Structure prediction request, 186 residues.
Amino acid sequence: MKIGDVASFQNGFAFKSKNFISDGKYKIIKIKELKDGKVKFFSDSASINIDDEIKYEKYRVEKGNILFALTGDPVNKNNPLSWVGRVSVYEEDAPALLNQRVCRLIPSKEVNSKYIYYYFRDFENFYALASIAKGSASQANISTKDIEDVDISLPSLEIQNRIVGILDSISNKINENNKINKNLAA
Prediction:
């Protein structure tokens, strides 16, 4: 089955960088914020204040949303963390908006969005997605249509939920161990 049979995607908005500020109400999620499976904000990450919240509602990112980088390095570069097609989950409570060349997964009721996240965190599936990118030797691009056309193994929702529960449990344990290690190092 194709992902487009059970999900669609929302592209980001082409915000003007002249409107970016450092302490606005909405964080802007650009490609550079999609790091190693998470959305990570940095000291130079942009934010914005907007007057018409309804106009930008469809670009709003909520906690738990799954995001894809539509532009990045091609697979012939040695750093998969910068490849096109990388997937991240938004785990923040802060209000945020999607910038251009980042898209959000909009799952149907038949799919657990975290299942799609974990599916593309698997290196073989991620590599297959990044490999269909078009572009030059220095920059590769995929479209939401490209992602929708990817064939995916999709078990029943019950099994998806069980898989996600197990993987979330492992991920949470890793995060806890990393916090303990930081405390011990300090």
